[in-house]
Structures are given as C-alpha cells and as structure tokens.
C-alpha cells in the first residue's frame, strides 16, 4: 500500500532451478525466473517554487514541500514491467588437471509507461504545478550471452608451485527498442496540475499516436581472455597476468520523430538516422598478491 492517493502496485515472481548430475564428473544446472509488476505509479515529487517575469519562469531555491504526497497523474496512469531470464550451465571435469564450464543465458524485458510524469515547477500565484511531460512508452529488451571456460589446475617443482591457466571465450548480444508516442497538443490540452482541484482526465489511448521517439539499438560483444596464475611460498605469494581481447559491434537506428504541436502538428520534426560501427580493445593485466598473515 502507498500513502499516495491512487497509487497501487501488485507484483508476482516465479523461479525454478534444477540440478542434474550426469555421471561422476558432470553437472547440468538449469535456472528460470519470471517477474511481473503492475502499478499505478506514485508520481509525486517535491516541486521548486518558481517566479514569473513575462512568459519566463525562474526557479528559486524554495521547495513546495506541502505537495510531496500529491499524485500528479491520478488514476489514469500505468507503469508495468515483465522480466524473464533463463540460464543453463554445464560443468565437466576431464581429468585431475583439466575442467570446463559452459553457460548460456537469455533474457526478455517488457515495460509500459503511460502518463507517468511529474512536474518540478510550482507557481504559487495560480497554485499550479508545471513541467509535466506525459508520454505513452513501450520498451522491449532481449538478448543472450554465452561463456565457455577451460581451466588447467596443476603443480610443479614437487608441488611447491601451484598454477592455474584459464582460457575464456564469451559472446553477448543485446537488443533494445523504445517507442514513445503523444497525442497532438490540441488534443492533450494542459498537463499542468491545479493543486486545489486536479483534473486527471487524459485523452483515450488511441489518440496517443504521434511518434516522438522510435529507437532500435543492438550491440554484440565477442571476447577472449587468457590468464595465468602461479602461487609461491605455500600460497602466500600469488603472481598473475592476463590479456583480454574484445570486439564490439553497434547498430543504432533512430526513427523519424514528429511534431505534436506548432504550426504543422503531425509533421516531421526530425528525420531518423542510422549508425553502424565496430570497435576493438586489448586489455592486459599483471599483478602480485602477498598474504601477510598465515
């Protein structure tokens, strides 16, 4: 429960994990989780008092604390989230020296925001909170990753030196799309909140059809990592060094955006752009650790 009027939230979560032993040297672990949250958000904020000169408003350093628990969107708002994840991990011991671990991961996330916006300006002369920017937003994200590790664990010099050599390969891909829409300004009307008598009426959702943001992005990362670690003095001194190589690919699509007001409402405001580029990096590391106490 919330002490903000109209604010509600319900949440549910489900998770499961299954571990299978496939012989004496192999295990398989599968994990899944789903969560869902539906809410009318508590879009309350503490606005700053503003002064006015002509058509210009200027912030002061005074907060209008009496409106800290005033809902600015009322009952006609939505903020929902859904997240699903799945992971499968296989581990295998080949012999006393070599072992391997392979893990795969996938996820999906959906988010909907409707009319959940707060204003940060309070004008005491008219007793109005201004600065709200309500939108109808859909966000979809999904992707996955894969990592494979090969580890060699061995001793030399009559077991006086302990060595660990690790070779890792990993790949990940992330997709993201966000689309935001608004109604025409003439349809939406004023978004200001009259603190003495708030009007929470909003246009039907079918009228929130002017695209103001339309992003599609994707990034892919491929990496290889090699690390060598050696322990001396019965494990008190550890020397390590490694190097990692990454190759990253970006795909950025920003769609057309349209005017919601002005002299030509609904007309093109900004044409979409597309960017494609890649980058690579080599990251070495080296170090020493010494344990002062036994």
Structure, explained:
Helices cover 1% and strands 65% of the residues. The chain contains 1 helix and 16 strands. β3 and β4 form a beta hairpin. It starts with 7 loop residues before the first strand and ends with a strand.
Topology (elements, then pairings):
Blueprint: E1 8-21, E2 26-40, E3 48-53, E4 56-63, E5 78-93, E6 98-114, E7 121-123, E8 128-130, E9 136-156, E10 161-182, H1 185-188, E11 193-194, E12 210-232, E13 237-254, E14 257-258, E15 268-270, E16 273-290
Parallel strand pairs: 3-7
Antiparallel strand pairs: 1-2, 2-5, 3-4, 5-6, 6-9, 7-8, 8-11, 9-10, 10-12, 12-13, 13-16, 14-15
Features:
single chain, 1 helix, mainly beta, nine-stranded antiparallel β-sheet, five-stranded mixed β-sheet, elongated, 1% helix, 294 residues
Task: Please give the radius of gyration in angstroms.
Answer: 28 Å
**Residue share in helices?**
under 10%
Strand content: over 45%
Q: In whole angstroms, how far apart are the ends?
A: 53 Å
Major β-sheet profile = 9 strands, antiparallel
Based on CA inertia axes, which overall geometry fits?
A: elongated
Mean model confidence by pLDDT: 94
Number of helices: 1
The residue ranges in which pLDDT falls below 50 over 5 or more consecutive positions are none
SSE order, one letter for each helix or strand: EEEEEEEEEEHEEEEEE
Strand order of the largest sheet: 1-2-5-6-9-10-12-13-16
Give the number of DSSP strands: 16
Instruction: Kindly name the structural category.
Output: mainly beta
